[in-house]
Design a protein that fits this description.
By secondary structure, the chain is of the alpha/beta class. The protein contains 8 helices and 11 strands. The strands form 2 sheets. The protein has a 7-stranded mixed beta sheet, with helices on both faces. Strands 3-2-5-6 form a 4-stranded antiparallel beta sheet, with helices on one face.
């Protein structure tokens, strides 16, 4: 199996002008993609004037697809995810979920962050029930949802514990269960395993794969970890240094049935090398820009 690497068009082009990737051509013969991002940009106002964090960015995702975005620090990948989650307002562009444009946060977009965001005064079960409760679900339905997703993440026996009684990996499992209990159309995950040790991180990656198979989730995933991106993803977008835009799109042809032994395969190592080389170029650009900025100050 070989991966497909597509160079991404320059951000100055409009969405309608972008050459179609193989994936986008296939979507022309299918239903509306679950997520479509059309020319999203972001500028922040600073004392020195506008700072462009994200140049025009466009892509789409199919149902049950797992897409990762990687890039150097400060390139705008988390900014993009927060815009899609409704936590930041874009400077320009449009976003569509199931063909309907959106601008604000919504339960149909479940978010999981690197930082632990559980309510410390609620038990594990109560944390998972929080979203359904806000939506008006009755007690029986809330209990059913919480028990189902705590089973899915392997924490049924800890449902009456409080967050402070759990390890970091267990807290992130609760966060995933809480997001899933809202029945989101798409999961947005911002470096959710970045604070975990290597062994726990590997376990969490297998958990995400298992949940995807069982719950048919669609996931947009931000990570700095190349191995993690290759192991989990159907496609990987590589971003440039700030101001960020997509530099390349890499197809990962392993299907949904993956096991840890895949990491040692020649195909896996080849894709990892491709991503590494692309990121290394951008990392050098970041360092050179920082050195140049230091000389001018």
């Amino acid at each position: 199996m070989k991966s497909a690497v597509a160079s991404w068009p320059q951000p100055s082009l409009g969405y309608a002008e972008l050459p179609l990737t193989t994936y986008e051509k296939r979507l022309n013969f299918m239903a509306e993609p679950i997520l479509r991002i059309d020319g999203i940009t972001k500028q922040f106002q600073t004392k020195k004037g506008p700072l462009t964090a994200l140049e025009p960015t466009s892509f789409s995702m199919d149902v049950t697809e797992f897409v990762s975005i990687v890039g150097p620090s400060g390139c705008g990948k988390s900014t993009l995810l927060h815009i899609i989650g409704g936590l930041l307002e874009p400077t320009a562009g449009h976003m569509y979920l199931d063909g309907v444009e959106f601008h604000e946060p919504g339960a149909e977009r479940g978010m999981v962050f690197q930082a632990y965001t559980l309510f410390p005064w609620l038990t594990v079960r109560q944390n998972v029930q929080f979203g359904p409760k806000l939506r008006g679900a009755d007690n029986n339905k809330r209990k059913e949802l919480a028990d189902h997703f705590l089973d899915a993440v392997g924490l049924h026996g800890f449902r009456d514990h409080y967050p402070k009684q759990l390890s970091g990996g267990m807290r992130q499992r609760v966060a995933i269960a809480r997001a899933l209990a809202n029945s989101p159309r798409i999961l947005l995950m911002d470096e959710p395993f970045g604070a975990l040790d290597a062994q726990t991180r590997a376990v969490m990656q297998d958990l995400v794969l298992d949940i995807r198979r069982k719950e048919h989730t669609t996931t947009l995933f931000i990570t700095h970890d190349i191995d993690e991106a290759v192991y989990l993803s159907d496609r990987i977008f590589v971003m440039t240094a700030r101001p960020g835009h997509f530099k390349a799109e890499i197809t990962v042809p392993f299907g949904q049935e993956r096991e840890d032994a895949l990491r040692n395969s020649l195909e896996f190592l080849e894709i990892r090398k491709q991503v590494h080389e692309l990121l290394h170029e951008e990392g050098k650009a970041v360092v050179e820009a920082e050195i140049a900025a230091g000389r001018t100050e």
